[in-house]
């Protein structure tokens, strides 16, 4: 009744990019205003041929530069309001407690890629000896068995695998690769990598900066075992899920209700702002449900967060629990999907960085070998947005094995080991200094610093399911589209009259003003309607409650000169 918008807004489509774990591969699709987050998740999972889906999610950075996970139950457009360009990152959301229980090699491979990112960006922090073994598994997966004729010199130094990678560690990695890795296939090396990484304290940890009651800088991480607190590289607290009774937050304060030795304890950590505290609370609640509940049916439909003096937040858990996934996969029998491994652009040696697209992401298992040429020459299912990751300032910390702490040199200033610097900003800054002869693409995760006129420059893209259906093609088949840039695609789409495409999602100044005016008009009408009804009740009522109001001179004049004549006209009209 009070809708002032155009009907075209309902059919408007918004374009977005989805960066995969390899950074040089991006999916592109469109979504409509009314579609929810599950639409994009289904599109990605189908494109990557994943069935153990609940371990993964899509992450984005909102207009306040706060990272968030895409909620499958909420409207996409409401979650990415003000974001331009709209870019999601395909990431592991729940790190499997035991990676060997993952049934499909594809799932293990994507977890392996995620952990390689964590190792490179410093989140998977470990002792140098453990880091050397992990790096050796990566080298074995990338290069195969050691060959004295092929692997000469400092060949490991061509790979960027660790945040603080030193020549001494590279020598140790070469020795391990030569003497201990022989005979392992890429899949075996990756599985051994996962097993080794899963036993580290920082496995699955995404550090959240907080402060304790004394003002000390800490980092909270949440994984399958509970909530962990780190100060520098030293673990200071570990709250197991069995010890946690409740998780809440009050404004910027994240509160854990613990039961230790039959005594209740309230432990609070202060977050930088309210949005980061809310994000930490959501992560903790979802991780707890995923790893501790037997079935998703046992999870409350709505979990309410927030305290007495903060705005309450409702969380609707969506998806299966880990136990459900393991049980469901026992009944699944399908041919293993093929995995096309290749060098990761962020860690490949210089000789491999100028190659074309990567086949890291698997193709659907039903594709025949004859189609591989078609994929490379005709339709490329992933966008080649290659980025290079150059080493940051290298540090040479001394490690005390007993204290498990990092002690920097006198001449070296070492940042906190778990400092969760923005990896997207890091990739972007590294890419901006590269020579122009490389056909590279900066990290597409929006941080607010990059130019807002960013366009998706690529010759071919994978079509969205909606376009496949509208064109009568099978959703598993690639659909050729001419998308030199998104603006051209939008123009051609509108010229056909099939789709009312929108170039960008975020509201422009005029759009914001229009929304404010529309809301103001609607609010004014509702207020006028309310007071009109209240006035009629006061005038027509015989109750003593309003007797003093009816005797007011202003109300008497209003009733005599306006209300009664208007009432007579209405009754005469009804009588006729």
TrEMBL record:
Location relative to the cell: Cell junction, Adherens junction; Cell projection, Rhabdomere
Signal peptide start and end residues: none
Domain FERM: 14-295
SUPFAM superfamilies: PH domain-like, Second domain of FERM, Ubiquitin-like
Positions of transmembrane segments: 513-539
Keyword set, alphabetical order: Cell junction, Membrane, Transmembrane, Transmembrane helix
GO biological process: actomyosin structure organization; animal organ morphogenesis; system development
Transmembrane helix listed as a keyword: yes
InterPro entries: Band_41_domain, Ez/rad/moesin-like, FA, FERM/acyl-CoA-bd_prot_sf, FERM_2, FERM_central, FERM_CS, FERM_domain
Protein name per its UniProtKB record: Moesin/ezrin/radixin homolog 1
Organism, as annotated: Medioppia subpectinata
